[in-house]
């Protein structure tokens, strides 16, 4: 578990369930970033910490277990206002940042190498889009990597394509600002079945029809759909949570 550290620009990593602090991600030495605003930790060859700062900078630090040190792999300032949220793509190739400004940034998710030592402060993100909507408080990528959603201070939930970063939908229901969004996680593991021998297929078909008639009630079908839908939940300052079924 990662949380803002005892110093504003650092991150403390705790081990669970012992609740023992085991690592501290250092601050960025080359520029003033202000306090930590958003954090994501994950594994890509080693422990990676993605951080968003008050200054609008986004950074990637990689931990080396061999010498217990942190290496700054990426540093970019795609925003003019503090970063409010960030999330990584499921395939761990990129991550997205949202801010108090109207920009959404798409950044490369760099993996550590033995010889790598660079800061990308001048290179810029993979893509930065001015959405025209300031204050997108929360950003989450769906687990199939196709879309991401943001929660807006204007009470709107917006859905974007991860590939083109174009706006696909605007969800309006809340009367006050939306502060959090989340997608339901769906098991993407494909299921396979061994085909029945030709001479037994009529029997299998008859048995399947009987089972469908016996178990395929409306409530069971509804339950099955609920378990396989990419639900999108949004929480607002109005104290309400909305649930959406899109795409």
UniProtKB/TrEMBL annotation:
The family this protein is said to belong to: Belongs to the WD repeat ASA1 family.
WD repeat placement: 232-247
Record region (Disordered): 114-135
Residues annotated as signal peptide: none
Keyword Cytoplasm listed: no
Protein known as: ASTRA-associated protein 1
Function: Component of the ASTRA complex involved in chromatin remodeling.
Gene encoding the protein: asa1
Subunit organization: Component of the ASTRA chromatin remodeling machinery complex.
Annotated Pfam families: WD40
SMART domains to which the protein is assigned, alphabetical: WD40
Annotated keywords: Repeat, WD repeat
């Amino acid at each position: 578990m990662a949380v803002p550290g005892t110093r504003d620009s650092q991150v403390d990593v705790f081990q669970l369930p012992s609740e023992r602090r085991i690592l501290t991600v250092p601050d960025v030495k080359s520029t003033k970033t202000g306090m930590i605003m958003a954090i994501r930790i994950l594994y890509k060859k080693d422990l990676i910490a993605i951080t968003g700062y008050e200054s609008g900078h986004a950074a990637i630090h990689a931990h080396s277990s061999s010498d217990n040190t942190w290496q700054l792999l990426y540093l970019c300032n795609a925003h003019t206002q503090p970063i409010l949220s960030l999330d990584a793509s499921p395939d761990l190739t990129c991550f997205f940042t949202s801010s108090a400004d109207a920009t959404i940034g798409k950044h490369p998710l760099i993996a550590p190498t033995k010889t790598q030592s660079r800061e990308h402060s001048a290179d810029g993100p993979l893509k930065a889009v001015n959405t025209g909507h300031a204050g997108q408080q929360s950003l989450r990528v769906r687990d199939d990597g196709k879309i991401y959603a943001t929660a807006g201070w204007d009470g709107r939930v917006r859905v974007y394509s991860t590939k083109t970063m174009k706006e696909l939908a605007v969800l309006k229901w809340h009367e006050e600002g939306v502060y959090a969004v989340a997608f339901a996680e769906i098991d993407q593991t494909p299921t396979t079945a061994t085909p029945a021998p030709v001479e037994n297929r009529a029997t299998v078909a008859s048995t399947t029809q009987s089972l469908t008639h016996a178990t395929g009630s409306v409530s069971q079908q509804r339950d099955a759909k609920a378990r396989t839908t990419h639900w999108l939940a949004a929480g607002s300052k109005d104290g309400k949570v909305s649930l959406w079924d899109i795409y």
